[in-house]
Amino acid sequence: MSLADDSLEETMAVTMTVNGERVSRAVPVRQNLIDFLRTGLGLTGSHIGCEHGICGACSLRLDGAVVRGCLTLAVQADGAEVVTIEGLTASGEAADLQAAFVERNALQCGYCTPGMLMTAAELLASDATPDRDGIREFMSGNFCRCTGYQAIVDAIETVLRKRRRLA
Amino acid sequence: MKPARFHYVRPASIAEAVLLLAEHGEDASILAGGQSLMPVLNMRLSRPRVVVDINRIAKLKGIALADGAVRIGALARHVEVMRSPLIARHLPLIAEAMPNVAHVAVRNRGTFGGSVALADPSAEMPACLLALGGAVVLESTRGRRQVAAEDYFHGLYDTARRPDELLIEALIPPQRPDTLSAFMELSRRHGDFAIAGLACTLRHDAGVIHAPRLVYFGSEPRPVLARTAMAALDGKAWSPATHDAVAAALADDLDPIDNTFGSPAAKLHLQRVVTRRVLDGLPDKARAA
Ligand SMILES: Cc1cc2nc3c(=O)[nH]c(=O)nc-3n(C[C@H](O)[C@H](O)[C@H](O)COP(=O)(O)OP(=O)(O)OC[C@H]3O[C@@H](n4cnc5c(N)ncnc54)[C@H](O)[C@@H]3O)c2cc1C
Ligand code: FES
Ligand code: FES
């Protein structure tokens, strides 16, 4: 296989569904999915923190599962279904969770919040009902530098119990 | 922090992928789950000329029981392995270890093959593969070969895999019903890489331990089958005397790395702590089984 000149920016045409809408674009093959969503589509709800998989600020949903937007190339989402915090909010899926975050003061600067919500939404959508330790374990890939986590666990626990009709 | 320029190719078959690897060799990087490769590309610690994305190769996917072995396809994601009833039933060691691998979002993408190909010294799956006496299947344009785990892990991120070889699958003999297994690791936080850890299988009849296989990871450059400690344990009842003998033997088997996570002496101590906790927990585990 012959490759193009190494000094050129290689692009590839991709089509994916983002928050329910079909988008087709030519993207640089080296562009991370998070950068494509933020700069290419203007969906700046997902944040960028560490860019190497540690903090979880970039969490988004790819084909139904929460992933790191900084560790997936945009070209890898070709044909896939992507949901960002904008889509999660618009669908109302996380409305109770968002209200609980506000009520419990589970955010201060808010930088980690979109990622926290994307990850917590996966827990709520599963059939698991973990205790507080289990919630912490599930959320262990999302960092928060402000809240000390207690309030975040409170909010998730409240919604979990409501949705499972335990309280 | 964005990757340097590369060419991106997305082969649809194993044949196509190994041709690309034959052509580009060390200039190519295989992209599986990307959970270890992408950080390295983002930080530009590596600048491959070609990225070969194997995620669309259907033959690398899936988990199955065939010809007396559990086959875990290279592209089986950590989450699939963790939820697999087949793994829970036939390879409880792996089922027990998997929740220790990273975090939810990383497990949703990371693959079994990627873990075994990377051979991170703190990774759980290489240790389990060795403890269970499994093997890996490698393929290049020169053909297919099977390498036993005992011959596969050479050193720090160093394996028997050649740059033009694609890891196809792992083949693991199912655990016998009378085999007990246990897994434990010590890390700073849940999901972090282990500083000390033990993956083991053994049989346990009337309080006597038989045929133990103890694999230590985290402290060593690669997972280590602790043969001296295994000999000290085989045929013995777990007692303070056996514990002392195993703890002493570990000094011969292990040669911990000196790094920011601790001195070699501290890590040897932690491996002894893990050993004692695992073996002390076994009688309960045996009763529950
Ligand atoms: C925050 C964080 C925490 C983590 N914690 C842990 C942990 O606790 N334990 C742990 O084990 N891992 C951990 N990981 C790593 C994770 O498990 C990775 O998924 C795994 O190490 C590599 O799998 P991958 O599919 O993502 O591989 P990739 O990142 O795609 O590839 C890794 C390497 O293997 C090569 N490779 C991949 N597949 C093949 C193949 N089929 N044939 C030949 N070569 C191949 C690639 O070229 C590359 O060099 C963590 C990662 C992150 C980001
Ligand atoms: S920006 Fe992706 S994990 Fe930190
Ligand atoms: S609210 Fe500031 S980082 Fe979490």
Overview of the structural elements:
The complex is a heterodimer of chains A (167) and B (289). Chain A has 167 residues and is α+β, with helices and mostly antiparallel strands. Chain A folds into two domains: 2-88, Ubiquitin-like (UB roll) (Roll); 93-166, [2Fe-2S]-binding domain (DNA polymerase, domain 1, Orthogonal Bundle). Helices cover 35% and strands 16% of the residues of chain A. Chain A has six helices and five strands; from the N terminus they run ββαβββααααα. Chain A has helices at residues 33-40, 85-91, 95-103, 113-125, 132-138, 150-163, and strands spanning 11-18, 21-28, 59-62, 65-68, 81-83. Chain A has a five-stranded mixed beta sheet with strand order 2-1-5-3-4. In chain A, α3 (95-103) packs across α6. Chain B is an alpha+beta fold. Chain B folds into three domains: 7-53, Uridine Diphospho-n-acetylenolpyruvylglucosamine Reductase, domain 2 (2-Layer Sandwich), CATH 3.30.43; 58-172, 2-Layer Sandwich (Uridine Diphospho-n-acetylenolpyruvylglucosamine Reductase, domain 3); 181-281, Enolase-like, domain 1 (2-Layer Sandwich), CATH 3.30.390.50. Chain B is built from twelve helices and 14 strands. In chain B, the strands form four sheets. In chain B, strands 4-5-10-6-7 form a five-stranded antiparallel beta sheet. In chain B, β13 (208-217) and β14 (224-225) form a beta hairpin. In chain B, α10 (227-233) packs antiparallel against α11 (240-253) and α11 (240-253) packs across α12 (264-288). The mean pLDDT of chain B is 95. Classes of the chains: A alpha+beta (167), B alpha+beta (289). The interface between A and B is large, with 37 and 38 residues. The complex binds flavin-adenine dinucleotide and FE2/S2 (inorganic) cluster (2 copies). The site of one FE2/S2 (inorganic) cluster (FES) has 12 residues of chain A, from loops.
